[in-house]
Write a structure and sequence with these properties.
GO terms for molecular function: phosphopantothenate--cysteine ligase activity; phosphopantothenoylcysteine decarboxylase activity. InterPro entries: CoaB-like_sf (IPR035929), CoaBC (IPR005252), DNA/pantothenate-metab_flavo_C (IPR007085), Flavin_trans-like (IPR036551), Flavoprotein (IPR003382). The chain is of the alpha/beta class. 33% of the residues lie in helices and 23% in strands. It has two domains: 172 residues, Flavin prenyltransferase-like (Rossmann fold), CATH 3.40.50.1950; 218 residues, 3-Layer(aba) Sandwich (Rossmann fold), CATH 3.40.50. The protein has an eight-stranded mixed β-sheet with strand order 12-11-8-13-16-17-18-19, sandwiched between helices. A five-stranded parallel β-sheet has the order 2-1-3-4-5, sandwiched between helices. β6 and β7 form a beta hairpin. It is elongated and about 80 Å long. The structure holds cytidine-5'-triphosphate.
């Protein structure tokens, strides 16, 4: 739990800050909202108080006995200003302290994040550019505004990013550094097995879960290397990014980057088979209306292979996590198949999820069971792919410290 000051300056995007407040509260943080005096024209005090569960005022002359203009900033682990108008950034860069929020910004020594929102002309004005540069020089994290529809008919850079995006971008400041000093190699996405210069055999993996794992591991303080195979979503900032396409390329990349890492998370959906031959030119339709027969050969099982090689090569990751995409049937449940796979692969942890054309692949949410080779009780989690990723990272952190499975 972090103690957060959520400063809100007077822009129409203040309504998005209400949603950010919700996300922060749902994640278990204590939030003191400090609006500037004109915010009431957009969102009333009652909304901020009800959703934060704390008294809210813009004035330094209320609850004076608490010396709030200094105290809230001193107590805070993190100060956010969302939205940040051109005016509040100008005041903060000049060190003006004429209300509760600007006073707090001067008094705090906690990290400060500002998410600007204003019309494009104001964002691009030399005065604002200078103020942003000054704030950044002093260590304030000023989030780039999004580009898009603004308050009137105009559109351009100056739009407040969506609350979920802001929430995701400050995860490193909200999380406990449970993986500090740990190096983690993660594979994400789905491989493509070439047939000819234009065609491939692929799978439905979007890479969302792998990217969320990389984000959660980085937020937990780990040094992250992400091997990306055909992601449909942008990779997170702050990770060492490697690209691979086919299963064979992925295998090469894993064996190149795994030595020296503490943890390997094999999240990529790796094709089990590839075309036996890759045609040099595009496979053409034939006049006799016949269709080509494609012969497939087995791909190496990268996870099983690296676990096996570990027996002879000391510098390979001591903690390896597999993912199992399973479907249940009348022979066994998803969990039965998961347990059998964990034994077969020989890794330390297996994250099992049920797949189907509408489950897991390409979806925003996921439901998982984490199985441990040491026999610890399985841990379940469900929610957004980032929620699930955080649980996996927590479990890895506990397991490498020797306490697998004792948190939920
Ligand atoms: N995996 C791998 N190499 C492969 C296939 C899978 O390293 N050729 C890894 C995946 O990254 C994942 C785990 O093995 O961590 C399980 O993948 P899954 O597709 O569920 O299992 P398979 O071994 O392919 O078994 P099956 O498809 O028969 O259930």
């Amino acid at each position: 739990m972090k103690r957060i000051v959520l400063g809100v300056s007077a822009g129409i995007a203040a309504y998005k800050s209400v949603l950010l407040l919700r996300l922060l509260r749902e994640a278990g943080h204590h939030v003191d909202v400090i609006p500037t005096s004109n915010v009431e024209n957009f969102v009333g005090i009652a909304t901020w108080e009800a959703l934060s569960g704390n008294p809210v005022t813009a004035s330094v002359f209320e609850a004076v006995e608490n010396v709030n203009h200094v105290r809230l900033g001193q107590l805070a682990d993190l100060v956010l200003v969302v939205p940040a108008t051109a005016d509040i950034m100008a005041k903060a860069s000049a060190g003006i302290a004429d209300d509760l929020l600007t006073g707090t910004l001067l008094a705090t020594r906690a990290p400060v994040v500002m998410a600007p929102a204003m019309h494009t002309e104001m964002w691009q004005h030399a005065a604002t550019r200078n103020n942003v540069a000054t704030l950044r020089e002093r260590g304030v994290r000023v989030i780039e505004p999004a580009s898009g529809r603004l308050t009137g008919k105009d559109s351009g850079p100056g739009r407040l990013p969506e609350p979920e995006e802001i929430f995701a971008s400050i995860q490193d400041l909200l999380s406990e550094p449970i993986l500090a000093g740990t190096s983690v190699l993660i594979t994400a996405g789905g491989t493509r097995e070439p047939l000819d210069p234009v065609r491939f055999l692929g799978n439905r993996s979007s890479g969302r879960q792998g990217v969320a794992l990389a984000e959660a591991a980085r937020a937990a303080g780990a040094e992250v290397t992400l091997i990306a195979t055909h992601l449909e979503v942008p990779p997170p900032h702050g990770v060492n990014l490697i690209h691979a396409s086919s299963a064979l390329e992925l295998r090469e990349a894993v064996f190149e980057h795994a030595p020296g890492k503490d943890v390997l998370i094999m999240n990529a959906a790796v094709a089990d088979f590839r075309p036996a031959t890759i045609e040099n030119s595009k496979i053409k339709k034939r006049d006799d209306h016949s269709a080509p027969v494609i012969e497939l050969v087995r791909n190496p099982d990268i996870l099983a292979e690296i676990v096996q090689e570990r027996g002879t090569k000391a510098q390979l990751p001591p903690f390896i996590v597999g993912f199992a995409a399973e479907t249940g049937d009348d022979q066994g449940t998803v969990l039965d198949y998961g347990r059998a796979k964990l034994r077969r692969k020989g890794c330390e942890m297996l994250v099992v999820n049920e797949v189907g054309t509408t489950l897991t692949f390409g979806q925003e949410t996921n439901a998982i069971q984490v199985l441990f080779a040491d026999g610890s009780e399985a841990v379940q989690a469900a929610g957004s792919k980032l929620d699930v990723a955080r649980v996996v990272i927590e479990q890895i952190s506990h397991a490498i410290k020797g306490h697998a499975g004792d948190i939920s």
